[in-house]
Amino acid sequence: MVQMPGHGLDLPGANRDGHQLFFANMSFHRRGAPALSPDQRAPWKLRNKNYLPGTQPAADLGIQMTLFDIAPDPRVVTVRVRLEDNDLTRYCAAIVREHAARAGWSKRQRNDVTRSLRMLQGLRPTPTAKVRATDVLQLRQYSGNVISTIDVLAAAGLLIEDRPTRVERYFAAKTSTLPPAMKDQLEVWLEVLINGAHQPPRQIPRDPKTIIVHILGIEPIIHAWAEAGFQSFAEVTRADITAALDQTKARRHIAGNGLKSLFTTLKGRRLIFANPTRGMKAFPKTTTTPLALDAAVISGELNSPDPVVALAVALVAFHALTGQQVRELQLTDIRDGHLVLADRYIPLAGPVRTRLTAWLNHRNRTWPNTANPHLLINRRTAPRLLPVSSQFPWSGLTLRPRVLREDRILHEIHATGGDIRRVCDLFGLSVEGATRYLNTLEHPDLTPEGQRVPQT
Fold first, then answer.
1. CB 413 within 8 A of CB 440
2. pTM of the model
3. Cβ of 219: how many Cβ atoms within 10 Å?
């Protein structure tokens, strides 16, 4: 193994640093030409089938891979927690105190993070190894504070972020039952969408929302092809795509864009022989007609006993804010009874002020020491500086912010007799977006119940 061509074997020199043991009867290759750098190789050939796109194998991260994965004994882990501070807890002690002071952690939460760090020290393969985020997630079975521990490790530079993103989880859920060849081709496409491509066809990384929309559009089509017996996208013809899109009604536009992106990427990576979508015209966007909601349903949610639900519904029902705008509102955006939203200065309605006061009182009583600057917080975000998720507080409600916003704009367009300029200024809409509501004036059946439409 160490003999140089044309030279004798230097056994004392080979044994200078000890012996390296190997398993018997396993393949071994002599040291040859240096491997190509990642830039010289095709990026789609570097992916490891045991990892989701966007993650790296352990060898690429410079850590020693384990030979056997053995679950830790809970009793041993519990005993290690009772020990005194170890290297990891001492190294992160200053960071824990800083996070606790900045985010307003309680004493219990600070102790939970310290306890989690003690457990991680015992679970690490070596005393100086970095910690994987997926290993921290396993602490839930020991009642550890997972999210705060991850924040501390990231600030200390000891975290290996290997958690699958939302896009990767969504992709895995939608492609788990596909044939292996189709799934491999979709992984190539997903990797290009996430990381971009520097070789033709060049592409910048796409927004995660755009990627999810692409997957949402093509998912029923590719599953139908798989059920029909297709094993690879190389078998798909232009006639198959045309027939699939003709059967797609509501998602025709996003399905067409998703298929174009998929086959363009596969052809550029030489995974298919020809691009069946080449030259196909773009499909027009399908628009829906906004409909008025039942006033009794809105009133019921406005009077919800949960103050955060009542406030969120009021902000959308009276001022037509989007769900993202409500989620990203900060305490400093409310000044002197007005809501400052980008370049808009919105006077708050009386019912909104009442519900705002009730929520702020509840917020101060429940989390008096929180440093989170966002208006809406919950148990998960109160000890941090993050906004709430897109499902909060709409999960479990019959209303959604999008349809509630459409109802508010629809009433305004009918109350003003189609004053499109006023609607654009009031709600920050474009002329094209406001025209969608203006078209409902031509249909008397779409008039909001109990709303008199002025004659124009």
1. yes
2. 0.68
3. 19
